[in-house]
Write a structure and sequence with these properties.
- This protein is an alpha/beta fold.
- The protein has three domains: 10-139, Toll/interleukin-1 receptor homology (TIR) domain (Rossmann fold); 164-330, 3-Layer(aba) Sandwich (Rossmann fold); 336-420, no CATH class.
- The protein contains 17 helices and ten strands.
- The strands form two sheets. A five-stranded parallel sheet has the order 2-1-3-4-5, sandwiched between helices. Strands 7-8-9-6-10 form a five-stranded parallel sheet, sandwiched between helices.
- The radius of gyration is 23 Å and the shape is globular.
Length: 439
């Protein structure tokens, strides 16, 4: 369907974090079967196309949008930017509207306090059918009634337990390293490569911290992403996430209120995600207040978690910023043993020995269809399957030797781009112009 100017029009724009891509694509198929035209980036974007502009245009040319809200959506700058544009379009009087849907754990997102969301829960068949009927009513701007239930044919997704699965050996080892370093009192900056689901690490870190420090002494804060958020909105949200009372509208108000929790000498953990999003001025003030609190209270443990954008801010936020003194701790690539354990958790019936698994995995690497099955159904991190490295993606002055030095040169912009793009660290990597695999 096109408008008067010949531009493609859509009934529904799908906004989501890539960690939920398979679930969202299943929903898109179900909505398409109901007659809706869908904009899904993996369906519509042309390879090589400048995608930020294309996504912005598609959202403006959609009748409505579905926003997939999950705990890790708050860490996604893209999702947050799309939400701000949705709110702008909804307030423009054009008739545009958006419907938030929740999968998994209900997220702590401020806009969900005033907007009715469709909760798919754990996507069990009953929950999915009820939620899908509610969603259809929302798209038609109709009340769902007392007992909604979709009766027709649906593609039902596999219940995704990836974020709740047991940690494998390398993940356990990494988590132990995190808490060992926290005992020094120095703040940590946990850095993730592309395609790593940091929610797994964040949840595991919070659970262990709650055991060590107590539930009331562990706080997960994620600042608002909108560049239009003023100090009152920015630090008011942080105050709510730290369960602080009072009128908090400035950075020093927030720091002073948090000091009240720290004066008793109890160990407190602050997990900060999404720091790189939001207005630069407020972000700088937060980093400065955290630096002062860290130096004043030895019992305060601060962990920041992010990716390439967070790493780039380390020395860009000033000498008095917390980031300036934070120790970088990159999340390591999973070892072959870990992949065996992950695959075994999903496909227990195969009962593969380590040696048989290695042969089986080598087969997956060369058969693209099997790769997709391993990633989509087995929840194997996609960066471990059929990953191609092309020298044209790298900076021109990056020699093959520099690509093989490993994490020791992570501070260099060249290596930071390579690491964040998925290049394995801590081991020699063959970097050919065509294609190599990480296994």
């Amino acid at each position: 369907m096109t408008n008067a100017s010949g531009k493609q029009m859509y009934d529904i724009f799908m906004s989501y974090r890539t960690t939920h891509a398979d679930w969202v694509e299943m929903l898109a198929h179900n909505l398409q079967a109901q007659g809706y035209s869908i904009f899904l980036d993996r369906w519509e974007l042309i390879p090589g196309q400048h995608f930020p502009g294309a996504i912005y245009q598609a959202l403006q040319n959609s009748r409505c949008a579905i926003l997939v809200a999950s705990p890790d959506a708050s860490d996604s700058g893209w999702v947050q930017q799309e939400l701000q544009l949705m709110i702008t379009l909804q307030n423009s009087g054009s008739g545009f509207f958006y419907v938030p849907i929740v999968i998994g754990e209900f997220p702590d997102l401020p806009f969900l306090e005033t907007v009715q969301a469709v909760n798919f829960g754990n996507s069990s068949p009953k929950d999915y059918r009820q939620a899908f009927q509610r969603l259809l009513c929302g798209l038609k701007q109709q009340p769902p009634g007392p007992d909604p239930m979709f009766i027709g044919e649906l593609r039902l997704p596999t219940i995704d337990t990836a974020d709740r699965r047991p940690l494998v050996h390398s993940e356990h080892t990494f988590l132990e390293a995190v808490f060992t370093r926290l005992e020094t009192g120095r703040p940590l900056m946990i850095l993730a490569q592309a395609d790593i689901n940091t929610q797994i690490y964040g949840r595991a870190l919070r659970r262990q911290a709650e055991t060590l420090y107590g539930v009331d002494n562990v706080f997960h804060i994620f600042p608002p992403n909108s560049s239009r958020a003023d100090r009152t909105a920015y630090f008011g949200r942080l105050a709510k996430q730290c369960h602080l009372e009072g009128d908090i509208s400035e950075s020093w108000h927030w720091a002073e209120a948090l000091s009240g929790k720290l004066d008793g000498g109890q160990e407190v953990l602050l997990l900060v995600t999404g720091f790189e999003n939001g207005p630069e001025e407020s972000r700088g003030e937060l980093a400065g207040e955290l630096r002062q609190l860290n130096e004043r209270y030895p019992a305060l443990r601060v962990v920041m978690m992010g990716g390439e954008r967070l790493a780039a801010l380390k020395y860009a936020s000033g000498s008095m910023s917390l980031l300036n003194i934070a120790e970088e701790l990159p999340i390591p690539q999973l070892a072959h043993r870990d992949l065996h354990d992950l695959f075994g958790q999903q496909y227990r019936q195969l009962n593969l020995s380590p040696s048989n698994f290695k042969a089986f995995w080598n087969l997956l690497v060369v058969i693209p269809a099997c790769c997709r099955i391993a990633c989509n159904r087995g929840r194997i991190p996609p960066r471990h399957v059929n990953r191609c490295y092309d020298n044209r993606r790298y900076l021109p002055n990056c020699s093959r030797a520099s690509k093989q030095r490993g994490i020791a040169c992570y501070s260099a912009p060249c290596w930071r781009n390579l690491y964040s793009g998925g290049l394995p660290c801590g081991q020699t990597t063959n970097c050919y112009a065509d294609c190599t695999g990480p296994i």
